[in-house]
Amino acid sequence: MNELSAIWPFFGLILTTPRLELRPIQDADIPAAVKAALSGIHEPGKSPFSNPWTELPKDELGANMAGWYWRCRAGMAAESWTLLLGIWHNDEFIGCQDIEAKNFASLKTVSTGSWLKKGAQGLRLGKEMRAAALSYAFDYLNAEVATSEAAIWNKESLGVSASLGYEPNGIYRDQWGTDVVQVQRVRLTSGSFTRPDWKLKVEGHEAAAQFLGL
């Protein structure tokens, strides 16, 4: 048991699409993740995140990101978990796609969130990585429902959701950082998922599934 993936099975998980590779972020990947985030994700003052982490000072951003990755790993348990998948395109780290669940054995529901650095936006990679996460959740984890949300001004995110078959699931007001925003919830079932015209390749699922009690 010398390989880290034998100790922490998620490190052996790899999801592959026609253009992307998604795999859990390891410590050696954190500098690349921080570099991608620092290169820019959104326009200044227009954060699409409920927690505006990208607006931290540059000398604090890296430590904040690393702490988040470590907390998510430490909190992984069969009933509730957050799987953080780094996104690689042409061997370059370009963003992150997460899959989160609470009381998964009973609810069979996941939620997703993601970010892409500016240099990788506009290439339909956001849709491809979300489709990968949904294919994995529905076909391998046996989820029945997937949810997401975005500020109502975030037409790009909501457009990706609509193209994959999500339906509106209510609007609520919330405070994101110092701003009060209208947030659109969306919901997708396995039966209404608009599947891509490619098949997801998955490696290392069995050990991850065993950890999650699936």
Automatic annotation (TrEMBL):
InterPro entries: Acyl_CoA_acyltransferase, GNAT_dom. Residues 19-166 form the N-acetyltransferase domain. SUPFAM superfamilies: Acyl-CoA N-acyltransferases (Nat). Transmembrane segments: none annotated. It holds the Pfam family Acetyltransf_3. One of its GO terms (molecular function) is acyltransferase activity, transferring groups other than amino-acyl groups. This is RimJ/RimL family protein N-acetyltransferase. It comes from Arthrobacter bambusae. The lineage of its organism: Bacteria, Bacillati, Actinomycetota, Actinomycetes, Micrococcales.
